[in-house]
Design goal:
Helices cover 30% and strands 27% of the residues. It is α/β, with parallel strands linked by helices.
């Protein structure tokens, strides 16, 4: 593996599932120092912070250093570099790092590269930094392939539906599971009606994560845990109160605070800079929206500035045992990022 991929290979070689990111964080801090960042450190919660430039205008490149569990031996097959996080999302974080290291920053700008912890968990890393920075632009590090940019991520709400009933003989009464399933089927019918004619990003997407039923003494209990991906117009509060709240004989509780959908402006100066950079690198740019969530959903209601998500890799490979990234695509993404920073006026012209 050649030196052009050292940052990426190094990150992949330090396995860092959520909750165990210190070794990878230490590597990245040291790497940033070696390749020319003015400052590199970890903050008090464990996020990696790399800074270049000291101007009053700030751009934040926010990636994440944690991955899902399931270690994959780091190895190269042709142009494919395998390893957990190659796509989601150490490829993006490494590309941020290499791109910023390779440019000179104008005196009125500061570039902050962040490797957030816990993105695959509760996003505590992103929540922690919300009041630490005031960026003019934000780039979120998530895979979109090198020639596409991601504008939107759906919201999410995890909920538990419970039914408790007095025990009756199965021949003459409806069980707690029957009641729960009937309500679930009615909900799916309403959701299907709402989704009719809408694209993925506009749809409500509920899924059953767990279900169980049990009988104790004179009571029957049934419980279902659901996760619902939500469009912009349906906030977690609306979903819980106006949709789940219509159930009959079902108790509804939430597992955690929901996250609202977020969609960026495709006409922003940041989006235009990316479109031009992708074209100048030989690609045909495109926009995508994702059915999942990211740290974009967490930070942007507070930072409220131009944003999009970008990074090399095919998101179909996220979390899979076959996760890998194409080295040539990685290098193209680094080139696009450098060009974007020049087009925004953050960096000086490339050599």
């Amino acid at each position: 593996m050649d030196n052009n991929n050292e940052t990426l290979v190094g990150l992949l070689s330090h396995y860092s599932p959520t909750g165990s990111v210190k070794n990878a964080a230490d590597f990245l801090v040291q790497k940033m120092e070696m390749i020319g960042f003015d400052k590199s450190t970890t903050d008090t919660i464990g996020n990696v912070i790399g800074i270049k430039g000291n101007g009053p205008n700030q751009i934040v490149l926010l990636g994440h250093i944690d991955t899902v569990s399931g270690e994959i031996p780091v190895h190269l097959e042709g142009d494919g570099l395998y390893g957990r996080g190659a796509v989601d999302a150490k490829g993006s974080l490494a590309a941020f790092t290499d791109a910023v290291a390779a440019i000179s920053i104008h005196s009125d700008w500061q570039v902050v590269v962040i490797g957030a912890m816990d993105e695959e968990g509760e996003s505590n890393g992103a929540r922690f930094i919300c009041d630490q920075y005031q960026p003019k632009f934000v780039i979120i590090g998530e895979p979109s392939q090198w020639n596409q940019i991601t504008l939107g991520y759906k919201g999410v709400q995890n909920s538990i539906l419970s039914v408790q009933k007095s025990k009756t003989h199965s021949a003459i009464g409806e069980s707690a599971c029957d009641t729960l399933l009937e309500n679930w089927q009615n909900l799916r019918m309403k959701v299907n009606q709402f989704n009719n004619g809408k694209n993925m990003f506009e749809q409500i997407l509920p899924s059953v994560m767990k279900m169980n039923g049990k009988s104790e003494d004179f009571l029957m209990n049934a419980q279902m845990e659901i996760q619902t991906r939500l469009p912009e117009e349906i906030t977690p509060k609306i979903w819980v109160e106006e949709w789940l709240g219509k159930f009959q004989d079902v108790q509804v509780s939430i597992c955690n605070e929901g996250i609202q959908a977020y969609k960026a402006d495709k006409h922003s100066p940041l989006a235009r800079a990316f479109l031009g950079a992708i074209r100048s690198t030989g690609g045909t740019p495109g926009f995508v929206n994702k059915s999942g969530t990211s740290d974009m959903n967490i930070v942007m209601p507070i930072w409220n500035c131009p944003v999009l998500a970008y990074g090399p890799g095919d998101s179909i490979l996220d979390h899979t045992p076959d996760e890998h990234i194409n080295i040539q695509e990685y290098r193209l993404a680094v080139k696009v990022l450098k060009t974007v920073l020049v087009r925004l006026g953050v960096a000086k012209e490339l050599d």
